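User: Can you model how zinc ion sits in this protein?
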Amino acid sequence: MTVLEMLLRYQETDMQLLRVEREINASEERKRLSRVRNFIQKAPERLDVMEEKAFGLHVTLDKLRYNYARICGELDELEKGAGDALDEQSIAYYQKKTEGVLHNLATIRNEIHKLEKTIEQSKKEYDEMKKMTIQMQKTEYPAAKAEYDKKYKEKENEIKKIRADMAEIAKDIPHGYVEKYNTKRKEKVLPVLFDIKGNNMCFCNGDLSQTELFDLDKKGIAECAHCGRLIYRSH
Ligand SMILES: [Zn+2]
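Assistant: Here's the modeled complex, given as structure tokens:
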């Protein structure tokens, strides 16, 4: 058997493994585990964002309260002034001014009230998110992991058998080829072995140089300079 033929057998067997892996990856158990993992991974960042938002709300609230107190001080001044006013014109002036200030105070009070409600709501959301995160870590994750492990175990024997077959085939393949194949497989450059069928284009659409074509014809197998696939040419 030529190196190419052995490598093709290796790939064919590997495709069986790929099918099993894809089946496991597409399973509900795997999807659930991914969802839970994803949630747990993103939780700290999500909580940070919520905390930062809450901090901003508190800063705004402090400013509003400060303004409210300041305007209350203005009101005291106006009341003092109004008490000292003697003529009608002055009294009317203070009255108008006081009305304006009272209106301002009512507006700010309203804003403070709204903001306090928003803060209360965001605190509730934060607490819920925190509770949910803990529940995910303590209950959901172990449950999802156990379900997934069970699913994997069902396929484990099949996977072991295919891996053993691959190891058996690899024994006779000269050093370097299988390692190269496995590297590309890990990078998900599939299929690793590609038949250019008399063409001079690889699967990746990369053009083969004269040197590569010469190499290919000499060895029966070559490496694409663009994607690293092992290419061969059937006629
Ligand atoms: Zn290529």
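A couple of observations from the model: The chain has one domain: 3-173. Residues 99 and 226 are 78 Å apart (CA to CA).
User: Helpful, thanks.
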